[in-house]
Amino acid sequence: MSSAVLALRGLGRTYKTGEGKLEVLRGVDLEVHAGEVVGLIGPSGSGKSSLLHAAGLLERPTAGQVIIEGQDCSKLSDKARTRLRLGLVGFVYQFHHLLPEFSALDNVALPQMIAGASRPAARGRAEALLTQLGLGARLEHQPGQLSGGEQQRVAIARALANQPCIVLADEPTGNLDPHTSGAVFQALFDLARATGVALLIATHNMELARFMDRVFALEDGRLSERRGRF
Length: 230
Prior knowledge:
single chain, 230 residues, alpha/beta, Rossmann fold, six-stranded mixed beta sheet, four-stranded antiparallel beta sheet, 6 helices
């Protein structure tokens, strides 16, 4: 298998609370490879979001390493982490977080322009991604004019806009009905397979496990691989 696009080595995360320290990640090791779809399951409060935030350089872990495309990010400055995150990591959340005053097209073009792309190039790629996701007729619609499933497809296109090596998804279909959830996840899966991007997806929906190459459970701060049927 090719070298990992994301590697977590001995990842630890501890939070200070009024009652002391809360250890949510304990020596987590994980590798995700190009084109691979990896699921992350566990009950609410088990640390799935903390793991994704550390992996995506949104938070600094208390211990361990986050390695993206072979680069150890542990000691990078905040500015360097932001630059790396913008170019190499995409995010999809349970709630789409689209900019309400912008069209679908501009919501996907904006991250590219922030990264340095010209407006015509950014809008061209945005149109191509949205069309692939079945939204070719909805390019100029604002989020409020789109259904929940359509909004989440725009969020997927935005996550892929800067051609990241990995997309981190935190309950990406958790706010959708089962039928829409399946369709949106299939769209994410198909586009990831077509582009070769790696996916790390936290979810409660075990129906989605059939799409995934590997599934890991996070329990008591530790990660273990789950095999077989779900």
